[in-house]
Amino acid sequence: MRAIVLEQYGGPEVLTMRDIPKPRTGPDEVLIRVHATALNRADLVQRQGRYPPPGKMGAYQVPGLEASGEVEAVGERVTLFQPGDRVMALLAEGGYAEYVAAHERLTMPIPENMSWEEASAIPEVFLTAFDALYNQGEARPGDAVLVHAGASGVGSAAIQLAHEGGMLVIATVGSQLKEEAARAFGADVVVNYRQEPFLPVVQRVTQNRGVDVILDFVGQQYLEANIEALAPDGTLVVIGTLSGSEGRLNLGLVLGRRLRIQGTALRSRPIERKMALVQQFLREAWPLLANGRVKPVIDRVYSLDKVADAHRYMASNQNIGKIVMAVSPATSSV
Ligand SMILES: NC(=O)c1ccc[n+]([C@@H]2O[C@H](COP(=O)([O-])OP(=O)(O)OC[C@H]3O[C@@H](n4cnc5c(N)ncnc54)[C@H](OP(=O)(O)O)[C@@H]3O)[C@@H](O)[C@H]2O)c1
Hints:
Elements: E1 2-6, E2 15-19, E3 29-38, H1 41-47, E4 66-74, E5 86-90, E6 99-103, E7 107-109, H2 116-120, H3 123-136, E8 144-147, H4 153-164, E9 168-173, H5 176-185, E10 189-192, H6 198-205, E11 211-216, H7 223-229, E12 230-238, H8 251-256, E13 260-263, H9 271-284, H10 286-290, E14 298-303, H11 307-315, E15 322-326
Parallel strand pairs: 8-9, 8-11, 9-10, 11-12, 12-13, 14-15
Antiparallel strand pairs: 1-2, 3-4, 3-6, 3-15, 4-5, 5-7
This protein binds NADP nicotinamide-adenine-dinucleotide phosphate.
NADP nicotinamide-adenine-dinucleotide phosphate (NAP) binds at residues 40-42, 124-125, 128, 149, 151-154, 173-175, 178, 217-218, 221, 239-240, 242-243, 264-266, 314, 317, 319.
């Protein structure tokens, strides 16, 4: 099969199309003939050698944390899917390929009328956002939630889920186009951080109470303001560290306001916990995708052989929502 492989770390040019053996399907796994896969920020970091996939290192890596496609074969213990089913799966690696094997409990049916491209844009960011909001952040209806990088893949999912969950959503973004997008996703208030700092806006909007939950991808640069922006008993969920991972922490505020700082990482989580999350997501959030209340947001679609361009585009921070790669070239728009 054709796949994009990493044989050495470096810039986008190290991503190379190769013919490699199809993955072997374990007894609890389904073999998916991939129609689309989507990029995640972690893929860029993996390519640079700073985020190796879990498990043993082979001669090469196939990146890709999510994919959609058709079940081609099933392992002997599989009961949830059969050949021909349209599915999307959460992967630890391997999505940038014509075939990938996924545990049946990390695999989800694609809602009716949803395209391969849309479905491929769901697993990683919607599971991350859902888990960060409800499990890590323990957000509830009526809470005020601050979502940084509101137009990112994860941000676009988080804003929609929080809005749908009856929360007041404040989002930060880095451009006017992203401002409009975050509003369309359902943010009540959007701050362009290039024009004004977010903390005074949070204080004004919440009448100095602060927000109950922050979903943060920025890390270092925002740490002090994030802690200041939290309401008593609030939670800072650390999902990414885009600006760096060290910072000054006012423990007096953490103590006085009874704050929580909760880190989260999806890919490295034990598989049993990932399976439990996928099953919870299917019960609690999948119906919102099926009835169209929340939607995957696609910025653009590349063909798999244009993977280097897709990585460059993500690195330029221009994307609003997801960058998808179509594995059958006919559907590419770029
Ligand atoms: N922990 C987990 O399990 C997990 C899972 C999935 C994703 N993540 C993390 O979630 C984050 C978003 O991922 P994604 O795939 O959705 O990314 P994405 O679509 O590439 O969006 C990232 C956005 O973050 C903003 N940004 C980048 N550098 C920044 C900086 N230094 N300061 C402020 N904003 C910055 C940019 O938007 P602006 O123009 O608005 O600044 C950029 O477009 C990443 O950090 C990723 O590693 C974590």
